[in-house]
UniProtKB/TrEMBL annotation:
Membrane-spanning intervals of the chain: none
Top-rank taxon, per record: Eukaryota
ARB-07466-like C-terminal domain ranges (all copies): 116-228
Protein known as: ARB-07466-like C-terminal domain-containing protein
Signal peptide residue numbers: 1-16
Keywords of the record: Signal
Length: 236
């Protein structure tokens, strides 16, 4: 686990699939679970934070757990202290954190792709984001092995995936601030669109608003495809 910048959550609705992140009671890090599974784990459910799921699936949080005086349940990637498994609702990556401080990152500076197959606009955008969020981006991906234009801007070297959790497929709540910063700096970045946490924002069709009000995307089946471990940014 890693730790760096301090962030406070606001308790607003988040779209998530079962066993994926949400923002729950008191703005705490949560997980979308059935109310029965949440209750049996000692958690508290709130409505409206997992709107894509059945009515019995709600955002589950657990404010305290047995890992020191500050023990609390959160995604392990976002814990700045030690963690213990088996004490929190949800999947194994939701653990009891010994620290009360909310933090993200602590990663070494990622390597940037060279300009070539990865276009200059994408490399420039990657450098601007990393400069704005030192220690928050673990790894950067630009191109994929596919013919341009293909089905993704990665095929043309005009997209960057900013990996901001401890590993691929590892959930985090870190990307929200990055994604909103990208939106707010859309002109300088030459932004085409940005995706984070199963939501998308496009400057040509969307007004500036908090991530919680961005357009929802379908459940694609896992943490990475639902963009809970990285922020995807496409450039013009």
């Amino acid at each position: 686990m890693h730790f760096n910048t301090f962030i406070l959550f606001t308790a607003t609705a988040v779209m998530a699939a079962v066993n994926e992140p949400c923002i729950g009671s008191g703005g705490r890090a949560g997980v979308c679970l059935t109310t029965s599974a949440c209750s049996s784990s000692g958690g508290v459910s709130i409505s409206g934070a997992c709107p894509s799921d059945p009515s019995n699936v709600k955002c589950c949080t657990k404010a305290s757990c047995a890992n020191g005086s500050a023990g609390n349940c959160r995604w392990a990637s976002d814990c700045g202290g030690g963690t213990k498994a088996g004490l929190c609702p949800g999947p194994a990556q939701m653990k009891c954190c010994s620290s009360a401080v909310t933090g993200f990152g602590g990663y070494k500076a990622p390597a940037f792709p060279g300009v070539g197959a990865c276009k200059a606009v994408a490399v420039s955008g990657a450098k601007q984001v990393v400069k704005a969020f030192p220690g928050r981006v673990r790894q950067i991906y630009c191109t994929r092995d596919c013919a341009c234009p293909g089905t993704s801007d990665h095929c043309c070297g005009k997209a960057i995936d900013f990996m901001c959790s401890d590993g691929g497929g590892v959930p985090t709540l870190s990307g929200r601030q990055i994604a909103e910063w990208v939106m707010n700096n859309r002109a300088a970045l030459k932004l085409k669109y940005v995706i984070w946490g199963q939501r998308i924002w496009n400057p040509s069709s969307d007004g500036v608003k908090p991530w919680t009000s961005w357009r929802a995307m379908e459940d694609r089946g896992d943490i990475t495809q639902n963009h809970w471990d990285h922020v995807h940014v496409s450039f013009k």
